[in-house]
Amino acid sequence: MAIYNIATGTVDPKKLKAGDIINCPYSGSAKSIALPEGTYILEVWGARGGYRSDATYAGKGGYAKGTLTLTAKSTTLYLLAGGAGGSNTGNTGGVVTGGFNGGGYRYGYPGGGGASDVRINSNSYLARVIVAGGGGSCGATNKYGQYGGGTQGGAATENYGSYGYGGTQTGFTSSATALGSIPTTNSSSNWPGGFGFGGFGVYQSNGYAGAGGGGWYGGCGSVPDGSGDDDRGGGGGSGFVLTSSTIGSVPSGYLLKSSAYYLSNTSLIAGNASIVLPSGASSVGVNDNGYVRITVADIKSAGDIYVKINGVWVPAGGTLAKVNGIWVGQ
Asked: Most CB atoms within 10 A, among 45, 175, 177, 281?
């Protein structure tokens, strides 16, 4: 078994074998690989939201898993590991970007956490086959950002301020009109999230509300209520896995309509539940940057001619014999 880090090195698809692992830790950019025909286990961990005083108040990232079977000679996958929101305690006096891959922007303090996802054939939100939602950022120093992941992210319900809805499979946990692109300016109308990104954490009346986390649908940001810096955090972004059950809820323009891309053996875990991290340790949600992992379950190596016998790919040619019910040879 070989373990590769696609964020810092290269991976030769021709050398991949069953059991190999391709890791993609956070790097701040998309990584791509052209995979040969085979079966692959996809795992994604969403990123934590930002916080001002203590990581306890940051919304935690979620987790998603699914098995993808590719039948084309070569298919390009894009791997995006989300970035955590920051942890600065000082007011920047300006707009702060959220974590990579959809974390909501915020005024003054750290923004939302980014989602982690895998995309097929296009580096587009509309080509995502699996998503782990990112957490929302805190509002005031002691107001919680909400968890991401699962079928819907957490919604802000603490006193003071408005909105902070969580992302769902088709929108938000309460009625809101999704924005078409991630909002980057401090405006009381920029709190909603959208498909792939979190909403803005608004500053007004000396209050600093939280930003939403990225996700299938990002969480919404919050808006202060005018009572000073005691405002609620942002909502968490939702997770997603493409299956025959979820294809009916994808938005217009979605690029993976073929059943060839449906995942099997799927799992979605929200960031308020126990998650096994990439290190193997367990934690309630992801309290760090996001992560993507691909494990090779079965593969037909590029450049070679293989045949599938009893469900196992073996090199064509040479001599094959069945011994005690098992094909052997080379």
From this structure: 45
| Residue whose C-alpha is closest to residue 83's, from 148, 172, 156 | 148
Please give the C-alpha separations between residue 321 and each of 183, 324, 330, in angstroms, as whole numbers: 63, 10, 10
pLDDT the model gives residue 300: 83
* pLDDT score, position 312: 55
Would you list the DSSP string of 251-288? Answer: PTT-S--SGGG--EEEEEEBTTSEEE-TTS-EEESB-S
Q: What are phi and psi of 260, to 5 degrees?
A: -60, -20
Query: Which amino acid is located at 25 in the chain?
Result: P
Cβ contacts of residue 98 below 8 Å, gap of 6+?
Answer: 50, 85, 104, 105, 106, 111, 112, 113, 114, 137, 198, 211, 213, 214
Written as one letter, the residue type at 93 is: G
User: Closest Cα to residue 153, out of 173, 167, 169?
Assistant: 167
**How many Å apart are CA 142 and CA 278, to the nearest integer?**
29
* Phi, psi (rounded to 5 degrees) for 56: -55, -30
pLDDT tens-digit profile of 248-307? Answer: 999 999 999 999 999 999 999 999 999 999 999 999 999 999 999 999 999 986 455 555
Nearby residues of 299 by Cβ (< 8 Å), 6 or more positions away: 16, 17, 18, 36, 37, 38, 39, 313
Expressed in angstroms, the distance from the first to the final Cα of the chain is 20
Bridge-based pairing of strands 282-284 and 63-80 is: unpaired
Task: Report the C-alpha gap between 155 and 85 in whole angstroms.
Answer: 18
Single out the residue of 87, 47, 83, 52 nearest to residue 203, CA to CA: 52
In the DSSP assignment, the letter for residue 309 is E
Do β-strands 320-323 and 312-315 pair in parallel, antiparallel, or remain unpaired? unpaired
One-letter amino acid for residue 245 of the chain? S
The radius of gyration of the chain from alpha carbons, rounded to an integer in Å, stands at 21
Q: Report the C-alpha gap between 250 and 216 in whole angstroms.
A: 10
Average model confidence (pLDDT) across the chain: 93
Enter the tokens of residue 143: 């107001």
What is the pTM for the complete model shown? Answer: 0.92
